[in-house]
Amino acid sequence: YHNGRFVSILPLLAPECGVTHVNIAAIHLNERYGDVTLNDDPYSAPKYNAVWEEVRILQSHGIKVLGMLGGAAPGTYTRLDRNADIFNSYYEPLRDMIKWCGLDGIDLDVEEHMSLAGITRLIDRLKLDFGADFILTLAPVAPGMWGGKHMSGFSYDELEITRGSSIAWYNTMFYCGWGSMETTEDFDKIIDYGWPAERIVIGLSTNPETSGWIHGELLRGSLGAIVEIYPVLGGVMGWEYFNSITVAEPSGEQPWCWAQLISEILHLKVRDVESSAQDKPCTAAQH
Description:
Elements: E1 19-29, E2 36-38, E3 41-42, H1 49-60, E4 64-70, H2 76-80, H3 84-101, E5 105-109, H4 116-130, E6 135-138, H5 156-163, E7 169-173, H6 185-193, E8 200-205, H7 216-229, E9 235-239, H8 256-270, H9 275-278, E10 283-286
Parallel strand pairs: 1-4, 1-10, 4-5, 5-6, 6-7, 7-8, 8-9, 9-10
Antiparallel strand pairs: 1-2, 2-3
Protein name: chitinase
Organism: Glutinoglossum americanum
EC number: 3.2.1.14
């Protein structure tokens, strides 16, 4: 919803958008046990009926739909990082929410301090309850992937060593002052640190109201250079869908145009790569 108006995500089905995954944001575990909300309302509230109807349509066309847990609002991960009884009291309603919504996975956006043992326990429970095919991703800020200052508390290096096989990829934020994609410099730091390109999805701002937004022509240069060198790049994701703009479509009335721009940049540079590699880059949208 934007300014009280429902913004459909169905245009992302267009092949030229190149979208493979959509994250529904943001899920919060509030202080009262069992109080799980999607933003400010219960996830089953009538206002979200249209959202879940469209989610089913996306899934029927092969797009995977994840829920983003946490984000800027504090508390969710603090509550999940306590003793086993308290963990279960908060985790079980989350598990029930995932089942009710029929999500294909969860993006763990930890923007508050959490212990390595706590995030490991959460990952293990999700995999135990939902199986090997359930998609788990994390959303570190870019410096967290080169050993710099970040918001999550635990070490992403250590997490990758112990639970990398359970994590599909990392939605890495290059905006809000946590890195930039104006050039390839910050991405290069991550690669030089030792991360394989296929583990990194480049997270970008889609609107100037979120700091770090980058003009499309700059993205053509930086993203184009990256996928030319790393055709198996994990992909690109945008925060967020409903207010996405491009220079060619600045009104925000056609937010899917941002995904089309990214898809064009990615496919422009990988069109000569064999199909097995060409299929790997993906564009993840947030709603």
